[in-house]
Automatic annotation (TrEMBL):
Belongs to the AB hydrolase superfamily. FUS2 hydrolase family. Residues 38-172 form the AB hydrolase-1 domain. Keywords: Hydrolase. The keyword Protease does not apply. It comes from Olivibacter domesticus. This is Alpha/beta hydrolase family protein. InterPro entries: AB_hydrolase_1, AB_hydrolase_fold, FrsA_esterase. GO terms for molecular function: carboxylic ester hydrolase activity.
Amino acid sequence: MLKRGGIMAKVKNLTMRGCDKKPITFDIFFNESLMPQPVIIYAHGFNGFKDWGNFDLIADQFLASGFAFIKFNFSYNGTSPEQPEHFVDLAAFGENNYTRQLDDLKCIIDWIYNPFNPYRSALAIDKIGLIGHSMGGGISIIKTAEDRRIKSLITWAAIDQCKTPWGNWSREQLKEWKHEGVAYYINGRTRQQMPLNYQLYEDFLTNQEHLDILKAANQIKVPWLICHGTEDINVPVTQAYNLKKGNANAALFTISTDHVFGRRHPWNSITQPFAMQEVLNRNILFFKQHLGTQ
């Protein structure tokens, strides 16, 4: 669906082929009179999706500041193109892993560069910025280290190891996981039992070197802003300090807030909570400094 407001275009729920040819559902926001614009990509976190917390409001702020904005659902995140805000495909969720997410993010960047992309003229392909939240932050760090097409990075509450969600499990829990082939956890919002197939851990073991976030952090040469809430109980702020230690050139911004910067889903307000707005203000200034705008 295309919504137009003056010169602003917002195209929702497009699809492209992602990992294993599963569909990636994505949105693109751009200004029809500013061609081309620096483009910002947003990668959501574990148990998340592109529209969590009315993310269109965030996209609108970047759009108003002169950026095109793309947000997407990882192909195995458990949603579907028909229901992009609901976990209706738990079989896919159970088969999600870090390698597949890296492949999906590559698909998004490849699409931006594709000369047959119908929105290509709106996108400044040499000015791509990336935002990743939580697990998506870890994915974004690895991808930025290996893909020179990304010119600037911002992470929100990013993980420093690819061990979500088993990082604190005991040996006994890991043994049971391997024996059963699947573990479950309760989604705190929907109360669904979300499956975690053992292949997630096997993918990590097979690709440990590639999935070393701190190693990737050290290899990042482009401007990077690390944002983290000091009251985050899901991904403690110590992980932000670890990332900063891994890359002395990265900028660090901390604020007294939680893992999602004061948001929740659904979000019914037309404004952002204070912490999220502070993060957004700094993000927009950071990207303007390092990517520029038209």
